[in-house]
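Thread: "does anyone have the structure for this chain?"

Original post by V.I.:
We have the sequence but no experimental structure in hand. Need at least a predicted one for the grant figures.
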Amino acid sequence: MTTKTRSNEEMIAFRKNHFLPTASLYHKEPLHLTKAQGQYVWDAQGKKYLDGIGGIVCISAGHNHPRIKKALAAALERDQIQHTSTLYLSDPAIDAAEALLEEAPAGLDRVAFTNSGSEANELAIMAARHATGETAVLNLRHSYHGGTSGTLANCGHHTWRFKSQPVMNTVSVQEPNCYRCPYQKTKESCALECAKDVERAIQTATNGKIAAMIVEPVMGVGGFITPPEEYFPVVTKTVHNYGGKYISDEVQTGAGRCGGNFLLTKELKIDADMVTMAKGFGNGAAVGGVLMKSDTAEKMTGRLYFNTFGADPHQMIQAKETMAIIKDEKLVANSREMGKLLVDGMLELQKRFGVIGDVRGRGLLLGMELVKDRATKAYATDEAVRFMDECKDRGLLLGKGGLMGNVVRIAPPMNITRDDVKFMLETMADAFTAIEKAFGKVAL
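Reply from O.Q.:
Generated one for you, C-alpha cells below.
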C-alpha cells in the first residue's frame, strides 16, 4: 500500500479544518518531509536538508540508523510480540533497563518506562508527592516539562497554559538565566541569588514543606538557558532540607547530547532523587523513562501504577540499540567536539553580527539568542523567524524557543561531522547577512 500524495496546500487546508488550532507549523512555507537518513532529511520535492534540530531534539544516533532498522526488522521477522505491557515478563524491557542502569547516577537503581517525557515527568511528580506526603512542587520560570495536566501546571510559559489549567500547589521560582539575570547581576557579581530564591519561595509560598522541585539541567523550550554549575548544589541541598525530592528533567539534555555523560545529571554530580528522559533516549521512538532512588520507589508499595504501552518490546529494542550505538560510535565525545566547533564558530559570528546577543548551551544542545539591540536586549522575534526561513532555503533546518520565540535552537543528530559544522556555520553567516539587509544592522 502506498501513501497518498497530497500537495502542501491540501495538507495545510486539512490541518486547518480538522487538526486542533494548537498544531502550529515551522516556516512561512511549511515543509513536507518524506525521507531521512543519518543527519539529513528530504522534502517531497527531493530537496536535501541538514537536520540541525534533530527532529525536535529527538534524533540522537541519526535518522533510520541501519543498526536500529536491522534490530526492528529482526524482531518483526521472528514475530516478536509487540505489546506486552508490564503485566507480563519481557526480555527487551530487562535488556533496556540493564543498559540504562549502567548509565545512571549513583543511587538511582529503579526504572520505569513511559511513552513520552510528559508521562515520565507526571510519574516523577506523582511519586514525589506520594513519598513525601506533601503536594507543593517548585518549578522554574521559563521551564517546560510536558503537555499533560500536571506538567503544564509546572510550565513557565503563559503561551502553553490554558485558562482551565489547574496550577494549585505549584510555585515558580526565578530562572538561572545569566544572560537576562532577573537580579541584574553579572557573572562577576553573581552570588547565586536565583538559587537562594528557592528557599525564599518555600518559606513564603508553601507550608514550609515541599514534595519536589523539577528542573531541566539546560532549559529546553525556554531557549537552552544554561544554569551555572554552582547553581545545582545549592538548590538540591535546599530542596532536601525542606523534605522534597529533586527531579532532574533530562528529556532534552539526556542521551549524551550535552557531551559529558549519557546523563548530564551524572556529569554535573546533581544530587537528584529522580531523573526523567525521553526524546533522544529512543532516537525518535515513543519511549520515555524514569530513574528513581529505592527509598522513593518503595513508598509506592501497595499502590497501582500502570502504563499501557510503557516497556513494550519494540520501543525497548530501539531504546537499547540507541544506547549501544551512542556508546559504540562514541557519539558523546563527538557531541562535545562538534559542539565546541559550533560554539567557537557562533562566537565568531557574534563578532560580525550584532543581532546575536548570546551564545550558550552544552555539547550539541546550543542556542543563539537574537536581539534588536545589544544594550537593551530587546527580543528579536521576527528576526528569528526570518533567520530560520533563510537557513531553510539554504538547506539547513533549525528550531526556535524562548518565551518570546527569539532563541535559535541548534540540536542536530549527534553523528554530525566537521564538514556538517562548516556547512552550518557558512549557512548561518549567509542567513545573518540576509537578516541585516531585511531588518538593518544591530550595533556591535
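V.I.: this helps a lot. Residues 169 and 373 are 38 Å apart (CA to CA).
O.Q.: and The longest strand covers residues 365-373.
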